[in-house]
Amino acid sequence: MANRRKLVVGNWKMNGRLTSGLNLAKDVADKASAQKPLAFDVVLCPPATLIWPVAEVVAGSPVMLGAQNGHAANHGAYTGEISAGMLADLGCRYVILGHSERRAAQGETSAMVAEKIAAAQLAGLIAILCVGETQEQRASGAAETAVARQVSESLPEKFDASKLVVAYEPVWAIGSGELPTLDDIRRIHKAIRKTLGPVGEMVQVLYGGSVAPSNAGPILAEPEVDGVLVGSASLNSDGFWAIAEKCR
Ligand code: 13P
Fold first, then answer.
1. Residue at 193 is within a domain
2. Which of 11, 178, 205, 233 is most exposed by smallest CB count within 10 Å?
């Protein structure tokens, strides 16, 4: 099996002000620096307003920076949008794309996500593609096919597997406290790798949805799981680091 490094990503979503965000980032950076060299990778994805100040706080620590969205175009008349090139300019290494909250609330289609991934990779960013089945798809036994389809439709025709991470985030598990069984996670992760084809063994596949310090251990011990994408539990540095340490 390919030797894939574990990756822990904190998605702060629309949370954090200047003071609270910088305190959180500094705490995480301090914990990471205390364990240098880290045996796993850590990425913080603050809201766009905090990317630059957080970049200054995590500089010199092993913590890497990511964004929660990026536009498909490089620049131009797109009021309110931020391009992948702008994110790279601020020091971002990663960008989350196709999160189910954006697919649902902003009407992002897989075709739009594919364009964003192409733009992100062109700008040198690692795209974290989010996929996951709805409760209805799960109930009808269609989770695997729904996720596989989302993966293939959300990838551009030509993509760089070395700049791709896939996060399996069942929509019903996000913010609900409910999690799939380890068997289910393993099965869907394998289906994702199969959909990716020969490069599937080198792409990190993360799990996301209600990850907490209390449940992260067995998830991260699963060889098919290359890390976690953490929402609400990433807003507390002790909790987030307790999750990250389960990578060791
Ligand atoms: P929660 O960890 O809050 O369930 O959110 C998961 C998520 O959506 C991360 O992108």
1. yes
2. 178
In a domain, 212, yes or no: yes
Query: pTM of the prediction?
Result: 0.98
pLDDT in tens, 29-52: 999 999 999 999 999 999 999 999
Our count of domains for the chain comes to 1
CA–centroid distance, 197 to ligand 1, in Å, is 27
Mutate to test the pocket of ligand 1, among 210, 214, 219 (most ligand atoms within 8 A of CB): 210
CATH of the domain at 111: 3.20.20.70
- Please name the residue whose Cα sits nearest to atom 7 of ligand 1: 231
- Tell me the CA distances in angstroms from 146 to 136, 176, 192, 219, one per residue in order: 11, 20, 11, 22
Residue 2 in any domain: the answer is: no
Q: Which residues contact 165 (CB under 8 A, 6 or more apart)?
A: 7, 94, 126, 127, 128, 129, 203, 204, 205, 206, 226
Q: Would residue 226 count as lying in a domain?
A: yes
**Ligand 1 within 6 A of CB of 177:** no
Under the banding of pLDDT at 50, 70 and 90, the label for residue 108 is: very high
Statement: residue 1 has pLDDT above 60:
no
99, 108, 144, 189: which one is catalytic?
A: 99
Tell me the average pLDDT across 100-118: 97
